[in-house]
Amino acid sequence: MSSTTRGWLSIVAAATLVVGSQLTAATALADPDPAPPPTPVAADDANPQLLHNITYRARADGTSRGAVVAYKIDDNNVNSDQPTLLPGMTFEVNTVLHDPKKAGMELSIQWPYGSNLHCEILVDDQIVAQADQFIAPRLFRPKDDPLYGTIQCGAPLDTPAPSAAPPPAPAPAPEPTT
Questions:
Q1: Do the Cβ atoms of 120 and 130 come closer than 8 Å?
Q2: Which of 48, 56, 79, 120 could form a disulfide with 130 if both were Cys (CB 3.0 to 4.6 A apart)?
Q3: Which fold has domain 52-154?
Q4: Domain map of the chain by residue range?
């Protein structure tokens, strides 16, 4: 057998090996069965351990830079993100709260930009709060409105936590002596 024939035979053998390996079934590695999802519990005020799914959505339809979205991440803490809000894009984040009445968010953009701001809060897939506001572009920051460029939706974020003890009562004024 000539060396050319042997070369062609080795090429044919290699091709047969490659094609044959492609036609055989490969062993599939499967994940174990996933755990079943938790069963939902009926919502009622008698069960304080019940958690509510909260969805925050924010949108800015217009030119807006430096957007900041602040929202209640749990019953006592606030989180914030700086998403890129271009027209047609929606920022969305999910969390859980014990008390859905504490769900609140705030959306702000930097001045001098203007935009139509929209925010909404869903509790257990039902819209409970939404707000829309047009923010006009401004050359200077308004001095009489520190929240210009900000829209609030739902519960306020800056409510102080209840203190353990009430503040001390003021001391009585001394009576005048004559």
A1: yes
A2: 120
A3: Immunoglobulin-like (2.60.40)
A4: 52-154
Query: Collapsing DSSP states into helix, strand and coil, what is residue 64?
Result: coil
Instruction: Look at residue 124 and tell me whether its pLDDT is greater than 60.
Output: yes
pLDDT of residue 135: 76
Distance CA 67, CA 46 (A): 39
| Pairing relationship of beta strands 115-123 and 126-135 according to DSSP bridges | antiparallel
Q: How far is CA 68 from CA 32, 103, 120, 151, 158, in A?
A: 41, 17, 15, 11, 16
Q: Do 123 and 96 contact (CB within 8 A), yes or no?
A: no
Question: Does residue 132 contact residue 118 with C-beta atoms inside 8 Å?
Answer: yes
Per-residue pLDDT of 1-17, as tens digits, reads: 666 666 666 676 666 65
In 3D space, the residue among 91, 75, 71 whose CA is nearest the CA of residue 83 turns out to be: 91
What is the rounded distance in angstroms from the CA atom of residue 3 to the CA atom of residue 163? 93
Helix (H) or strand (E) holding 54: strand 52-62
